[in-house]
């Protein structure tokens, strides 16, 4: 962490809203992407990021730069907020007996055609497996960063990635989603 970032953190803790905005702005776009990939809904993803920003704003004094980068700390909070929203959404959809999520033009433009096919398969994974796949392949986080973000050991992250790839390969083959064989091979080798 740079001296400039530490200065901005200190200023933000002291109540400087502009410093907080400057500090968090570079991380918001990726955070929204992560939340969207978990929730499949733009407005819910924005809600998750807003909730996370509010939590960080209120607890920035607890941030420990020796434990994690601001990016991984923020990602962890965003993921927790998104998972909380997903749980609430599942609860209400069961009550309303309406679990459908209509496709919107925005959803179709976020990913190209082949990525969308792969992501359809990713969506079928359990939340634990889907989360590690999204963080590793869609957010380009290392195994170590995923471990820090989710509070897991590197061994657990590797195990979940392995299980996720295995299950994803099975889903892709079963669904024959038009995904080329070489793509399935790549997923199973990584």
UniProtKB/TrEMBL annotation:
Keywords: Sigma factor, Transcription, Transcription regulation. Residues 25-90 form the RNA polymerase sigma-70 region domain. GO terms for molecular function: DNA binding; sigma factor activity. SUPFAM superfamilies: Sigma2 domain of RNA polymerase sigma factors, Sigma3 and sigma4 domains of RNA polymerase sigma factors. The keyword Transcription applies. The keyword Transcription regulation applies. Residues 118-168 form the RNA polymerase sigma factor 70 region 4 type domain. Gene3D superfamilies: 1.10.1740.10, Winged helix-like DNA-binding domain superfamily/Winged helix DNA-binding domain (1.10.10.10). InterPro entries: RNA_pol_sigma-70-like, RNA_pol_sigma-70_dom, RNA_pol_sigma70_r2, RNA_pol_sigma70_r4_t2, RNA_pol_sigma_r2, RNA_pol_sigma_r3/r4-like, WH-like_DNA-bd_sf. One of its GO terms (biological process) is DNA-templated transcription initiation. Coiled coil: none annotated. Belongs to the sigma-70 factor family. ECF subfamily. NCBIfam families: sigma70-ECF. PANTHER family: RNA POLYMERASE ECF-TYPE SIGMA FACTO, RNA POLYMERASE SIGMA FACTOR. This is RNA polymerase. It comes from Guptibacillus hwajinpoensis. The lineage of its organism: Bacteria, Bacillati, Bacillota, Bacilli, Bacillales.
């Amino acid at each position: 962490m740079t001296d400039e970032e530490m200065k901005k953190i200190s200023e933000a803790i002291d109540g400087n809203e502009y410093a907080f905005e400057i500090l968090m702005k570079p991380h918001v776009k990726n955070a929204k992407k992560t939340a969207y990939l978990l929730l499949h809904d733009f407005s819910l993803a924005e809600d998750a990021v807003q909730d996370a920003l509010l939590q960080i704003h209120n607890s920035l004094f607890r941030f420990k730069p020796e434990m994690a980068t601001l990016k991984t700390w923020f990602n962890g909070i965003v993921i927790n907020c998104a998972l909380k929203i997903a749980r609430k959404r599942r609860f209400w959809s069961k009550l309303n007996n309406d679990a459908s999520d209509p496709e919107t033009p925005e959803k179709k433009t976020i990913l190209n055609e082949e990525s969308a096919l792969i992501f359809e398969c990713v969506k079928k994974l359990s939340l634990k497996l889907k989360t590690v796949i999204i963080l590793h392949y869609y957010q380009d986080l290392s195994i170590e960063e995923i471990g820090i973000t989710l509070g897991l050991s590197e061994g657990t992250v590797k195990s979940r990635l392995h299980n996720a790839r295995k299950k994803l390969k099975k889903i892709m083959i079963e669904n024959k989603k038009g995904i080329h064989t070489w793509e399935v091979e790549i997923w199973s080798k990584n």
